[in-house]
Amino acid sequence: MPAAERLTELPDLPTTPGYAHAVTVTGRLAFISGQVAVDAAGCVVGVDDLAAQTRQALSNLRHVMRGLGADWSDVVKFTWYVMDASEVQTIRDVRDEILRPALGEVPNPASTLVQVAALFGPDFLVEVEAVVAIPGDPSDV
């Protein structure tokens, strides 16, 4: 795993609620575009259901990561764009439901959540992008 260290505790800063303050990496990085809740046919999944949309967006993100030879343990940072930041606990719950089996006791990646006025389409409630440390020898490029 090229994500080398996940910094979660520092003097003079509170412990983070489910993410790392910083993550160090080795090797190549991939910057994955924001993923929304669409299925393979391009249809919106989970209209008015933030949990369902978060699951689908993360599923789409995982498909991209697998195409790069990476998985959840290789995610360095998430950036979340949401229509309603007061619903952050729903996103955290779904994120943990999906990531905990892969990460075990390893802290979650660094994370930023931003409330926005609009997303790509009127039915979308969440979009997530990621920075991923690609496994393997950097000289294999």
Description:
It is a single chain. By secondary structure, the chain is an alpha+beta fold. It has two helices and six strands; from the N terminus they run E-E-E-H-E-H-E-E. The protein has helices at 50-67, 88-103; strands at 3-7, 22-25, 28-35, 75-82, 110-115, 126-134. Helix 2 (88-103) links the parallel strand 4 and strand 5 (110-115). Helix 1 packs parallel to helix 2 (88-103). The two termini are 17 Å apart. 28% of the residues are buried.
- How are the strands of the biggest sheet laid out side by side? 3-6-4-5
SS element count, helices: 2
Low-confidence segments: none
How far is the first residue's CA from the last residue's CA?
A: 17 Å
Shape: globular
Looking at the chains present, what oligomeric state does this protein adopt?
Answer: single chain
Present the secondary structure layout:
Blueprint lengths: L2 E5 L14 E4 L2 E8 L14 H18 L7 E8 L5 H16 L6 E6 L10 E9 L7
Parallel strand pairs: 4-5
Antiparallel strand pairs: 1-2, 3-6, 4-6
Helix pairs in contact: 1-2
